[in-house]
Structure formats: C-alpha cells, structure tokens
Amino acid sequence: QVQLVESGGGLVQPGHSLRLSCAASGSIFSINVMGWYRQGPGKERELVATITSDGNTNYADSVKGRFTISGDNGKNTVYLQMNSLKPEDTSVYYCNMLIRSRLTIRPYWGQGTQVTVSP
To answer: Given pLDDT bands bounded at 50, 70 and 90, which one contains residue 101?
Structure first.
C-alpha cells in the first residue's frame, strides 16, 4: 500500500510565502509524475503544478512566476514553494503522484492541507 502525507499549510498574510511538502511511502517502484492540485470553497479541484520524473514542469497560469514545484525522487517527495501569496490562493492543497508499484501503476492522493491567505 502507498501513502502520501502532506505538510506545510497554514495561515499567512498576502505577499508572504509558504512551502508545502508531500512524502510518499510504501510499495513504490517508481514515480512518474508528481503534482499539486487545489480546491477552494465552492470550487472544483484544479491543477496547480506538475513535474515529471525527468524534470519537466507545468503550471496553472494563475500561479506562474509565483509558485515553484520541485521533486526529490530519492526521498519520494514533492515540494511546492509558494511566494507572493494572494487571498485567492486560499484553498485546500492536495498532492498527487502517479506511482508504479510491482503490479500496478495508478494515481494516489494526499489528505489535503489548508492554505489560508488573509490580512
């Protein structure tokens, strides 16, 4: 079984920074894609950023230039550095990893971590 555990959320003022982490553990052969999604109050879950195993990144237009995704394959961990935070970034943030185990390849989700940006 595979588990994803997130950390790093919290309450910050506009313009400040936060760093989210998500570590995977369990029966992992390889991780093909790591990503972050978010879901604000009354909204659909949306893509924030992804990174592939060979380092290719993709960002939502709303976070380009402010957020940076990075991965540590040796630690099975993905990070999201969030700078210049805005109130509209307030959401529950979920990590997602496409993980190959011995018999399967499938996506896994973290439990979510709340990020609140408010004066």
So the answer is: very high
